[in-house]
């Protein structure tokens, strides 16, 4: 079971409208099992990357080793999440597009083979920009950020759950996942959506897609 959970409400600065109106609390999970590469639900290929030179783009200054070793007491505002929004936008679009292309090359898919793009739900502009960089029609991108906000590590499993529950993800769909986050880190994966029983269509807060790994 792979779980992503966030409680951003505990670290957002109330006066910072660049973050407080975007981020939300959420949790999502995906269950994987051993399987065969040619069966529905099979994960295909992965691409992962990181660049420590961008560590300052997304931070919480207080409470960590850097602050404690500085010899200076933490300021009240150091306990809040901070983000350089403009720089994050450009870095996220570039890295997710590059990573997506790397995964498509490994998988042997052209962009025309991708039925659904499920990107980290950072904001609508980033998702549309990534789709545009790849040459993918924006309507193929699954989005639920307008309803649940940016839930960070929970955003892709929640988007998968939404897509399954509303019928946007169907058995055999070729799906491209991609994400960018603090560190800075990024990654992408390709998979074929499994055949799931309609009995698994639960209220969205409880829906859990099922994938296979090999």
From TrEMBL:
Q: Does the keyword GTP-binding apply?
A: no
Instruction: Tell me where on the tree of life, at the top rank, the source sits.
Output: Bacteria
Q: Which InterPro entries match?
A: ACP_syn_III_C, ACP_syn_III_N, Thiolase-like
Q: Where is the Beta-ketoacyl-[acyl-carrier-protein] synthase III N-terminal domain?
A: 1-52
* UniProt KW keywords: Acyltransferase, Transferase
Q: Where is the Beta-ketoacyl-[acyl-carrier-protein] synthase III C-terminal domain?
A: 104-193
In the UniProt record, does the keyword Acyltransferase occur? yes
Q: What is this protein called?
A: Uncharacterized protein
Native species: Kribbella ginsengisoli
